[in-house]
């Protein structure tokens, strides 16, 4: 009688452990599938935001262009002043 009860309890423990392991395996597969989808989305986000990181370079180039334009403006004012005989302050 006790042997039979022991075998039944042991069998139930084995069944419960097997069910839990199957559940863990199914969840692991689900997590793997979701991680693959997330990885693809991260790649798309990275590709779509690269232009934002390039704005630093764009701002530096724009600053250099502005400096060049201001230098041209100063030189043009000096030339205009020299041609009209006015001082630089009057030409501005």
Description:
The protein is mainly alpha-helical and 92 residues long. It folds into two domains: 1-52; 54-92, no CATH class. 93% of the residues lie in helices and 0% in strands. The protein has three helices and no strands. The chain has helices spanning 2-53, 55-84, 88-91. The longest helix is centred in the N-terminal third of the chain and has 52 residues, at 2-53. It is rod-shaped and about 125 Å long.
Name a few traits of the molecule.
92 residues; mainly alpha; 2 domains; 0% strand
- Terminal CA distance reads 112 Å
Shape: rod-shaped
Into how many domains do the coordinates divide? 2
How many helices? The count is 3
CA-atom Rg in angstroms: 38 Å
> SSE string, helix = H, strand = E?
HHH
Unreliable residue runs:
none
Which whole number gives the mean pLDDT? 89
> How much β-strand is present in the residues?
under 5%
Largest sheet: none
Number of strands: 0
List the helices and strands and how they pair.
Blueprint: H1 2-53, H2 55-84, H3 88-91
Offer a concise description of the structure:
With 92 residues, the chain is mainly α. It contains three helices and no strands. The chain is rod-shaped.
């Amino acid at each position: 009688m006790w042997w039979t009860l022991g075998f039944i309890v042991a069998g139930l423990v084995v069944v419960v452990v097997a069910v839990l392991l199957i559940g863990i395996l199914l969840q692991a597969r689900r997590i793997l599938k979701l991680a693959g989808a997330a990885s693809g989305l991260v790649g798309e986000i990275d590709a779509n935001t690269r232009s934002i990181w390039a704005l630093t370079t764009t701002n530096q180039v724009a600053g250099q262009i502005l400096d060049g334009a201001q230098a041209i403006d100063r030189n043009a004012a000096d030339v205009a002043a020299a041609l009209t005989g006015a001082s630089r302050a009057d030409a501005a």
